[in-house]
């Protein structure tokens, strides 16, 4: 049986009939982090924490299985923004890790525009950032800021 490891489901909920990003609009993406994702992340980041790579170690530490690195989960946020706004510059991110994310958990990443202002023919957008598990439980949240070249999202 073949499993979908990366399920890209873009979603933009418009707060009006306009096709421009407005405060309150949400962009979402769903992803399942696989064992291979953890190995590749470990190689790229040089993070060999056994909590991410060794099931027995993770269980002895009180987790039910290997946990996905929080930064890997948080990578959903710039991915969501860049997939809708080509040329976006990700400027800042705060993160609060609420609950562990385990290998093969389905995670829904969401960014919600909370403030948008024009600056020098570009737009500075502030986003509430959240990740939920498949049961709708918050596992990660924070706030991001990005400089957008336009408020018109790409059609995906």
UniProtKB/TrEMBL annotation:
This is MaoC-like domain-containing protein. Residues 29-122 form the MaoC-like domain. One of its GO terms (molecular function) is (3R)-hydroxyacyl-[acyl-carrier-protein] dehydratase activity. It holds the Pfam family MaoC_dehydratas. One of its GO terms (cellular component) is mitochondrion. It comes from the Eukaryota. GO terms for biological process: fatty acid biosynthetic process. InterPro entries: HotDog_dom_sf (IPR029069), MaoC-like_dom (IPR002539), UPF0336/Enoyl-CoA_hydratase (IPR050965). It comes from Lactuca saligna.
